[in-house]
Design brief:
single chain; alpha+beta; Rossmann fold; six-stranded antiparallel beta sheet; 21 strands; binds adenosine-5'-diphosphate; binds magnesium ion
């Protein structure tokens, strides 16, 4: 297994003059595209469960292909256990990839699919059988070994794809690119849990790519968030949730995301429309360091306090929508231009157009300036 590092990675799909001549691309297109991935420094520790999370088109697949060697970065270094593998072919890196669509041999049964990578390496028949039995049991495929691939569900096929990667004992890492895309919603949860189980049991370095924050946070111990080809934040799911370094992370992580609204610093506190949030001296001095007066206030819906009876120093809001989500409900609250969401217990007696009083506890409040978190 490997500790994987990317150092100062840049990648551009820009067409060179040579490509342009070969592919009859007009001259004005040569060199016009910017970098898809820019100055990335990332590290994945050996044997860890990781997620690479970001919106569609942010460069996740590009990064994965740079790690596996399917793509050579325009600039930068790829290290496996501190060894420079940037110029290595994919097969020299011993990385297994699981893609959106299961990659399996339709003409073979499950056993044949798992046997193939080992047979290619000259492993003895006896060792092959032992290894396949272990892996099949781990993946709950032991009673499917003789089944033709065509008879499997997409989730089972995806397990075979994964099995083909982990059946080899020299696999340095498993890279999964949105592996649940074609899986039936009912089976997604079970397959994700299975991936996690296998990761724990074999201590494989896994990098799981997804645009779905829920998938990333429930799968990984360590999450890397990328936006427009650049690293935004990396940390445990708890760190990203509690201490987002930017409004982007605050909103992207969490369901619904963090409430965010613009405000200005006045003598009375942070003001947005008719709402003035008092702030402590300690926070005021932190904000003063920026020499600015415009900030973004952030608080997660679950930390917004609400009260039907009036409360001193709390802010008046009107309930504009109520969404029931089983054990709790999400209220949309409005006060002039400020709209926020709040999580309330399912049994709270509240209706649309009710007037409520709202408080933002200081220890749960986050304040950003020019996209950077200050508090
Ligand atoms: N082969 C390619 N040629 C040109 N542009 C590409 C190619 N592959 C991806 N891109 C562009 O690079 C950006 C990142 O793509 P990708 O790495 O696939 O993102 P993600 O996996 O996060 O959706 C996108 O703007 C995409 O259009
Ligand atoms: Mg992709």
């Amino acid at each position: 297994m490997a500790r994987i590092a990317l150092k100062s990675i840049y990648h551009s799909y820009t067409f060179s003059q040579k490509d342009a001549e070969k592919m009859s691309i007009p001259d004005e297109c040569v060199g016009t595209e910017g970098f898809v991935v820019e100055d990335l420094d990332l590290l994945w520790e050996d044997g860890t469960a990781n997620a690479l999370l970001g919106p569609s088109g942010c460069g996740k697949t590009t990064i994965l292909n740079i790690i596996s060697g399917l793509l050579r970065p325009t600039n930068g270094t790829v290290l496996f256990n501190d060894k420079n593998v940037t110029g290595y072919m994919p097969k020299e890196r011993h990385v297994a990839q699981v893609f959106q669509f299961p990659v399996v041999y339709d003409t073979m049964n499950v056993y044949g699919n798992l046997e193939f990578p080992l047979e290619n390496r000259g492993v003895s028949k006896k060792d092959i059988r032992r290894r396949i039995e272990t892996i099949a049991e781990m993946l709950d495929l032991d009673d499917k070994l003789k089944a033709p691939i065509g008879s499997l569900t997409p989730a089972e096929k995806q397990k075979v794809s994964l099995g083909r990667g982990i059946v080899r004992e020299d696999t340095a890492a498993i890279l999964l690119d949105e592996p649940l895309t074609v899986i039936d919603p009912k089976e997604k949860w079970g397959l994700r849990r299975k991936l996690r189980e296998v990761q724990k049991e074999l201590r494989i370095t896994m990098i799981y790519v997804t645009h779905d924050q829920h998938e990333a946070l429930t799968f990984a111990d360590h999450v890397t968030v990328v936006k427009e080809g650049q690293l935004v934040q990396t940390g445990s799911p708890e760190q990203l949730y509690a201490d987002p370094n930017s409004p982007f992370i605050g909103y992207f992580i969490g369901t619904p995301g963090m409430n965010l609204f613009d405000c200005v610093l006045t003598d009375a506190g942070l003001q947005s429309g008719n709402i003035v949030i008092p702030i402590s001296e300690a926070i005021r001095s932190k904000l003063a360091l920026t020499h600015g007066s415009s900030f973004q206030f952030g608080i997660r819906p679950e930390f917004v306090q609400i009260s039907a009876p009036r409360k001193e120093k709390w802010h008046p809001f009107t309930v504009t929508a109520i969404e029931s989500l089983g054990p709790y409900k999400i209220l949309t609250l409005n006060s002039n231009d400020v709209e926020i969401k709040s999580r309330a217990p399912e049994d709270m007696n509240v209706s649309e157009e009710d007037h409520v009083w709202v408080n933002f506890p200081e220890d749960k409040s986050r304040i950003f300036h020019k996209d950077v978190r200050l508090v």
